Automatic annotation (TrEMBL):
<dbReference type="Pfam" id="PF22544">
    <property type="entry name" value="HYDIN_VesB_CFA65-like_Ig"/>
</dbReference>
<dbReference type="GO" id="GO:0007288">
    <property type="term" value="P:sperm axoneme assembly"/>
</dbReference>
<dbReference type="InterPro" id="IPR053879">
    <property type="entry name" value="HYDIN_VesB_CFA65-like_Ig"/>
</dbReference>
<dbReference type="InterPro" id="IPR013783">
    <property type="entry name" value="Ig-like_fold"/>
</dbReference>
<feature type="domain" description="HYDIN/VesB/CFA65-like Ig-like">
    <location>
        <begin position="392"/>
        <end position="468"/>
    </location>
</feature>
<dbReference type="GO" id="GO:0005737">
    <property type="term" value="C:cytoplasm"/>
</dbReference>
<feature type="domain" description="HYDIN/VesB/CFA65-like Ig-like">
    <location>
        <begin position="935"/>
        <end position="1027"/>
    </location>
</feature>
<keyword id="KW-0969">Cilium</keyword>
<dbReference type="Pfam" id="PF14874">
    <property type="entry name" value="PapD-like"/>
</dbReference>
<dbReference type="GO" id="GO:0005929">
    <property type="term" value="C:cilium"/>
</dbReference>
<protein>
    <recommendedName>
        <fullName>HYDIN/VesB/CFA65-like Ig-like domain-containing protein</fullName>
    </recommendedName>
</protein>
<keyword id="KW-0966">Cell projection</keyword>
<feature type="domain" description="HYDIN/VesB/CFA65-like Ig-like">
    <location>
        <begin position="108"/>
        <end position="203"/>
    </location>
</feature>
<keyword id="KW-0963">Cytoplasm</keyword>
<feature type="region of interest" description="Disordered">
    <location>
        <begin position="1142"/>
        <end position="1175"/>
    </location>
</feature>
Amino acid sequence: MEGDIHGVRIEPRVLNFFHTVPGKIYTLTINVKNVSEKGCSIRYYGPENTKNFHLKVKNPEEPVAPGLCVPASVEYNATEEAEMTDRLVLTIDDEILEVPIFTYLSCPHLELPRDVDFGTVIADSKVITKEISLINSGAKAGEFKITYNGQKHISFTPSVGSIPPNSMQIIKVEFVTKIPGKLEETLIVEMEGVEPKELTIHGNVCNPLIEILSLKDEQPIKCISFGNTYYGTDCTECALLFNNSPATLSFVAMIDESAPGQEMGIDMTSTTTGALAEEDGYNSRHGSINALTSLITTIPNQGVLQPYQKIPIFFRFSPRWNKAQVGWKSKVIPPPRKDFALFVRFEMSGSSKGFSEITVVKKKGHFSTTGKFAEVALTATALPVLLDISPSDSLDFGECPVGESVDTLCTIRNESFLLPAIFQFRRIAHFSARPLNGKISPGQTQDVVFSFVPKQVGTFKPLMLLDVLGQTADTYNPSLTNLEVISTLSTRVSGHSNPVTVVPKPRFNPGLTPYITNEVGMYVETTFADVDSKVPRNALAGSTRVHLHRIYRPKSLDIEDKKVKVAFPNDRPHSVRPSERNQIFRTPFTYMDRYNYVDPDYALTDDEILTRRSHRSYYVEHLHLIQDLKKERRRKREYKLTANQTDIGLQPAAGLLPRPLKLKEIKSASPSLPPPNEEWRLLSTQELAVAEKEAMSKPVQEGLNAVPTTDKEKADCKKWLSPQNLHQIVVGPPTIEFGKVCMRSVSQKELNIINNLLDYILVEATIDSRELRQSSPLSQVVPPRSRAVIPIIFESNTKGNFQRSVTYTINGFHKNHVTVMAEVVCVGLELSTENLVLMPTLGLPADAGFRGVITLHNRLNYPAEFTWSPDIGERGTAFSIRPATGTVNTNSSLDCEVVWHPSYLAPQDGSFMLIVHGGEPLKLQCLAEMGPTSVSFVEQRIAFGSVPVNLTTTKSAFLQNTGVNHGYFQVLDPNPFPGLTVTPVHGVIPVGGVTELFVSLTPDTVLKFDAHIQIAIKGSRTVDLRMGGIVESPSVDMSVVKFFQLWWCYCGCKSSISFKMFNKGNTRCKLEFDLTRYKDFSLSFPGFQTTEDRNYQIMNPGMSTITILPLQTIKGELSFLPLQVAAYDFLMPVIINHMSAPTPSATPSPPTTMPSVKKTFHQPISSQPAVGDSP
């Protein structure tokens, strides 16, 4: 057996202690079997690490027989959390073998499938789900995390979590079939303590493709040409409709009226101007062609295709011309030639954004959109029937007796040079044509003989109708056509056959007849004009005298006499019969009128006729007279009403309205013929878009029923809808994109339902996700031609991508879906920029600083609270921002103003942390850029001149700014030498302004100085200021030579001594007199003390001060006002420029107990004694 060595078999070959935990003991057993044919010696030797490993075995003393084994056990004591290695030694006779020992800490162990295969699916934006199992076969729970960085719509639920030991976690892999193409994505599955593993996702997403193939070679076709055809005919072309996808599809044929390159019936052979003019006015004046939905059709126009199924599809072109109704004087002209280039597309039913939002993208010979349809172009030309009958379309055959015929030759010309014409004459009475039917080639003629064969008497003016025949489609079989009348030409024919009165020939009785008959014969009413030729002599046999047989008549007969009829002798009985009174019968012998008898019992006599006629005329004249009188009276009344002097401001014929017609006077137009292809009528994108727009303009129907309630609703909501009906119901958008949604926030979108049908529909949505459980109502009965919405409410507590399919059902039969997608994120804000640069703004004052605006955008659906936190470094910060805290509402923005407070020492950079409560912080870097400036001193040097020692002398220096930006300065060394101070140390010089610097000198030593100071300008060069002067010691004298002698004075009285003081130096001096110990004495310098001196004297009782200008003399007065008896002899301390004289010898103490206060300057600046010293 494989693995046997030296005649023994070791099981196992390696000792692995898995999932060890400190503090526990683990045991493994090992067996060594003798598989050789002879005995052998087998012995075990323990591991080197006897602290953690212990071997338990009983080594045999004798050789082990074949087939027997020697067992042993190894114990592992896990004293620490570490992995160890060792070995177990075996001796087989003289051979040494080692069995490795390994220990492993307790850790999870991840097992998962290598790939997930979604197979071949169609791109219908549906969420498909696969489940995989993550198995932790280890002894320790493990935290897992699934990471995917691709661009496909793939999500995992859950994507993070913990799997207990020896457990399994079901992971849902969700994929949105939205983008067609190959799916080959790799994701990383991580688990703590385990190396990351890869999971591959396979799939193929294809477009639900419909193709139109040629019937001959089954190749895709782009255009179908019908060629030329007459108005009234039907042209049919056949193709194949192919479902080139693995899914069952419902299709609907539509006319795309918004496709580019479409031609809606223009004459391509005419000029552009003529075509535009004809398009503008021809159709409205003379007629119009039938609507596009009946002009073009497909059979079938809707249906269901199984995967990879091919069905025949028939395209039919049926042009019809509808004449305009413009009155009885309109001229009938043939319809114009019209060329068509139309587009028919086969679109799949499903959820859509609407008919008004379709965008077309051409791809690989077919057109695809978000609605996914195939499109084919149809070209055809509709031609009029142009037959002309010459020489005229009106034939007059004149008079023709009955039984005879009249012929005329005409020519029929086919003026169409593209199509032949098949004609046939209709049969009518008395008229005929030869040949009765035939076919005329394009541009050729045909001779036709028209005949008038009257069969009866009368005038005949019928229309000879010439029918033009064409091929029309069969109603039941689209592949068959029938020959039917498509056009009729009328020829007006006329002819008359007048009645000819045939007077029967007289038939006289031959020979002599018996007297009892007394007859002449039949039809013997003969005029005298015909008596010689037609009357035999024996007709006069009634007379016995011969001379009577000779007819007497005048020599000349006029026209009236020729019409007189002959009264034969033998027709005496006819004289008493009723006859026409206007006929005259005269005897042939005497030419006298025959006697006629009128029976008054049966007829009116001549007198009675005249009497009756006069009686009737009397009443007729009387009635006419009464009517004329009434009309005259009416005219007079109307004239009196209107013919007056009152003017009511009416204009003739102004405001006249036509007489309203009554219902019986309104004649309806003759009903038009139904349009062709009504059973296979196509939908139109323009009509659907108009209907959708009309429905969208209406307010959303609210308070709709969740279930049908009325009988009408119940009947409509049970109907099975065809694909064409379903296509007229818009449910969308197909993808409800919430975008970025904050956790624990509520966001709402609307699922629009537009019902373009004339029936009620029931729409029910199904929600299977807890994130969408707040959506309500989910069932609505939508009325006809209206719009409704289903609110989709989304709320999630889990961060990550969300994608689900929401299934909806129409009328309980037709299912479809929409996809809901969202990205759940934390609350967050966006900065308009992360690096804000502040620039100086011209026109702002210097204290306004540098200002800028940072905009906070909240593009999420939840208000975001924020707080700005400045980053204060070692140099601090000179930036501020307002508002420092606040809230940015949903889908809004907030401007925060950042201000840099400029100074020379202010740092030009800084940063802020934007702390979003519940979100990620953001950092804003701020930088202030100084503009160019020009700063200089008005005077480059300050001359101090003579300066007093220990007194402060202040001079001013002026910095001027001649630039366009504010300047910021700093004095580099504000104390160039002791006693000299420059203030302020830093500041600002405004644009066009001046800033004053104060240079104060308080010297404590007599000296001569010449110094300079440097002023640094921020962002510009350094400027210098020079200064110089001499420090002099004070020199003051008094008019009192030695002392003040006041002598004596009564208590309560006042004694004064005046004196003068002289400043002999070139600098001012300040003297301070200390009389705080001597309250009875006081000094005053009327008119010479400044406000400062007086304030000092008020604030310090007993002290007096005076400032003497150079070379100035002032007057003073020492007053003594004792309050008790006492004698005084003391030295009055005098301090000049804050320096006191040397301390004199002690003097008697005054009676007052107040201490003496003196200010002593220990560094005198002059060797002269102070004023007021005792001799």
